[in-house]
Amino acid sequence: MEELNFIPNLASGPLDVYRNSASFNWKQLKLALEGDIELLRLKYKIWKTLEEDPLFAHHVVTPPVEELKRITQLQLKKINEYKFLTNAMFNASYGKRTRVIMTINEAVQSLNPSVSVKMAIGIYLFSNALLSLGTERHLKFYEATIKDRKILASFSLTEIAHGSDVRLMRTTATYDPRRKEFVIHTPDFEAAKCWVGNLGRTCTHTLLFAQLITPDGTNHGLHGFVVPIRDPATLETYPGLIVGDMGEKIGVNGIDNGFIMFNQYRIPRENLLNRTADVTEEGVYESSFSEPSRILGAALENLSAGRIGIMQESCHSISSAVAIAVRYAATRTQFGERDNEVPLIEYELHQWRLFGYVSAAVVFKLYIENFTRTYLSIVEKSNSGIRVDNLSEAVSEIHAMVSSSKPTLSWCVLEAAQQCREACGGHGYLKCANLGDIRSNHEPTVTYEGDNNVLSQQASNWLVRQYEAALSNRAVDSPLRTVHFLDHLPSIAKSTFSCTDTRQLKTPEFIISTYKWLLCWLLKYTYEKHEAEISSGRTKVQAKSKTQVYRAKTLTRVYGEYLALTFSLQSIEKKDSELQPVLYKLFCLYGLWSLDKHLVELYQGGFANKETAKLLRDAVLELCADLKGEIVSVVDALAPTDFVLNSALGKSDGKLYQNLQKAFFSHPGVFERARWWRDVVPSKL
Amino acid sequence: MEELNFIPNLASGPLDVYRNSASFNWKQLKLALEGDIELLRLKYKIWKTLEEDPLFAHHVVTPPVEELKRITQLQLKKINEYKFLTNAMFNASYGKRTRVIMTINEAVQSLNPSVSVKMAIGIYLFSNALLSLGTERHLKFYEATIKDRKILASFSLTEIAHGSDVRLMRTTATYDPRRKEFVIHTPDFEAAKCWVGNLGRTCTHTLLFAQLITPDGTNHGLHGFVVPIRDPATLETYPGLIVGDMGEKIGVNGIDNGFIMFNQYRIPRENLLNRTADVTEEGVYESSFSEPSRILGAALENLSAGRIGIMQESCHSISSAVAIAVRYAATRTQFGERDNEVPLIEYELHQWRLFGYVSAAVVFKLYIENFTRTYLSIVEKSNSGIRVDNLSEAVSEIHAMVSSSKPTLSWCVLEAAQQCREACGGHGYLKCANLGDIRSNHEPTVTYEGDNNVLSQQASNWLVRQYEAALSNRAVDSPLRTVHFLDHLPSIAKSTFSCTDTRQLKTPEFIISTYKWLLCWLLKYTYEKHEAEISSGRTKVQAKSKTQVYRAKTLTRVYGEYLALTFSLQSIEKKDSELQPVLYKLFCLYGLWSLDKHLVELYQGGFANKETAKLLRDAVLELCADLKGEIVSVVDALAPTDFVLNSALGKSDGKLYQNLQKAFFSHPGVFERARWWRDVVPSKL
After folding, report:
1. In chain B, residues 587-606 whose CB comes closer than 8 Å to chain A
2. Does this complex have an ipTM over 0.90?
3. What CATH architecture is B15-52+293-479+490-666?
4. Which cofactor(s) are needed, names only (chains A, B) (predicted)?
């Protein structure tokens, strides 16, 4: 355990009574969840460095939004200076480098989500996009971004009137052969690019997606262009642009989301990102599909990397939320036998409200860690030109996985943050509890990088295609084996619930096999509805639209849960034997607690019998009771340091009321008379 | 319809296409939902007056929390000056006066929830408490509060370590016969009173609840005292008090929630509110139950009035949220057949996400309007000394009703606000959409005035008592007849689902009878579990605790929905025939959409058959499709004026992108270079 000495010990205090009953060492669990000791060490190094830097001190009162933007920009500069990404790391293999960048992102996000968004968009997404969409002539932008940090970029895709449906974007880039330039134009406000992070106040360049139009008037569809926005020396925007800040939002106000309208704005021909297609000096459009496998890999990365980052951040957010709520529950007493007050954590209702989310946090962390490794190894192979079997099928499967997991995780985390706030009662409503900010900052993840409901449809489309293959005895295209079980469709569909004791339910076998039945049934239910709608004369678009509620939408959610279960189970099987008992319990709780939400389908499809609901729910409550003695140490393993957690209710010393008192008393002006008293008590004349 | 001319007409525009398909006049529906034309007129008068007053102008950027407190206090003063509560109204009957006060509260809350909280606590709750808990000697406080508005009060009950369990409060008021004073003392920070609205910066007096201790050392339990806090002329707090502001919260930051510690602080003996008990000058405790019926009525009012106010405000919040989201859905197009884009409202998934909440808004409004009248008439009779049959039973039943309805409504509204935000996509995340503020300001209602989970238990306790009576053939104590159907327990319990067509489900009869079955089954399920726990040797406290999840908690929620259904149905039956078709559709949608969440119990208890889930869910989707042509006019009837709604996405003219453009362009400094640019672009030396 000496190797884990870089993790600070926890102060002894009121939480000891629950910590002492744990069956495992919390630091070891922490390492198991992180998956890599070097990455864990890096995280702690970043947290410690930033804790010691006054620029990263927490604000007792939320600063004005403009000030938040200033601080965020300064923090980004400072992080650049700290060079957490060493040259050695930068020059390591793609997979290793990316995991380091992801770890830095996660560590920074937990302190100020706006900084990590600013960094991810402004530096990493942009430079990756240059590599995958651009060619040699764009390397100067790449160097200026990732090495010199002179460029801070943004991504201009969404328009005011078009978000999810990118085909209908209306910003144009028309080639002018006379001056060898593209002329960018925004026809009206509806076509203004918007929600562009970093654009409102700070970026120097944007990666613009616009309809490419050649001199013959042909529209060649959306293409990427590097467009200068601001003079890096003065931060003045260039003439020909109307660039504005979108104003205050529900959260992440450190990010300057902007909108932009182009007025016949000219950029050099060379600023077209021309890996897949180019326009000659004369204005002829030429597409070049020279390296299809690399383009596929690049597409995969652009689509998925951002969403994987969101899921990693979501894991962090849910971990912080449950850590606060569980520590509060273990130290806050209320009611009891006569006047012997009892900690909230002893109440079955309170356990049930929280422990499901604790188990979700653990399962998600294991899943995403495992999935990220799988994902990176495929991208790495593809990038390096190593032949990957079924690469295009793997790309599709990964897209479906991400498109179901991002909704499943981000929604669950949003619910968790809310439940944790409520479980901390009124005190949870204080800013100093930090649950409000965790929630508000997490909230946009259900919308951005693909609205959850729209993404869900992409996942269900892929799933139904695999089902159709299985139905017609064709091979299922599942190189990652997430739906290879469809090969056994008939036998799975026939299975029914036959347990008579909760012990039989509290097993990975029961959970995984029930999920397989559920997926098969939902596929059938979705597919048959779709076919019926088509038969009744509806168009494909209409039929798809009539197949979402109760069907495709549920299917995607269930698939997301199934992925989290199967990938985390793989991980658990490889962990230390000391950790396995608690991990299996958490796994089973997450599985049964999630199945609880699909009981109707188990009944409707004829899988369940009259006893199923009661047995399943009894099992959930038994697991909650079983985990009571473990849960405080589990959240110790999930929680970041106290500085990062930043909650008066969730400090690891468990001194709830002393911490609350400190928070109250150190509030600026707490005991002052209102400075504006004269305004409300007019003097008598 | 001339009588409704005080309601401004709606501007013609993109929403016309959906408005023209409505089967009813939206102003008439608005009146039907409000229930009283004079109250509706008053609401519009208040909204118009405040719209014309620059002090009530909306803020494009959230002001700092301290400034929010200043503005809120100024707004309260201004509202006092407007005298919306005329002398005639003030001198009207109790019921009439109270409904006027409630209407003013609702109208003000919709503009700035902090002002209405400040007013409700600082003026009305305090003055009512003086009347019900105090005697003649406290009339001077009453006059100074409600007439002269010289006192601004607060309520000090909750302590840092004790919220829901009031018995264990530790602040003491010890009588000192020598100086004929009570000495108030706070033993430590855990016993500091907290969450006291108005205490942090502004109140002059507080109504303190403390353990009354006589010179012989006997503790007589919690009693109310009027305690001076600040000099009204200078707003300086008095020596002997540590009074602080609790700092920033998730929402309602215009309210100065405070905490207070008393250091041997002395108040006159007469400041004890002595209606039910007094301490003689010599220090002898004397209780006096002279007028039991009035005391009961008073108790009823103190317990329930605040919670009814919360439910009225909740109705307003959900109305605003769905109005914004539905108008957005009707004007925002996305995807479609080829390039013919389709408004979001045309998608079944989008209808399903929103229309259930629209139906909830309508059903809740009708329920609460009806219930408020019932409630006020009982209180009025009891106050005026008219004998009310079964008064104490009615008080218990009303407490159970409020204790289930406040959770059911406030949770549903919280979900609605969130779903509406998500349904507006990224644009819904903008402050100028107003969905974030609606949500954050609504959020504390699930915790304050009785935490929803704690209140739920009080409701289920009452329900189980009635069930026990029915089981043993005793009379059910239900003077308001909310559970009189328990007299027919055996026949209800035997009923099963026998529909074969969705038409049979879309009826009040099916919905109400299914709810009765559900309540009977949940009562049995809860009761039998409790008895089993007792038999196995658990204490009552333990048995109750083991009966909450899946049982008592669900029972309370179902009872709350049942109340909303039965009371709104009573109302609908009396409405104009022109309005009834749409009202019945909305009623059925709310009923079936809510039953959808209890399908597991319908299966588990043997009521449902394999087809039930599909039929019920098909019926929900049919109703959504059926309501598509009505829904825009329904939200017109629910929505306040555009000024009050304050949403760039939800304006009644439907000019979505023009309104959004105006919001963006009028943001202060929107196109300015960041004033702090020099901080992030250091000059080269």
Report:
1. 599-601, 603-604, 606
2. yes
3. Up-down Bundle (1.20)
4. FAD
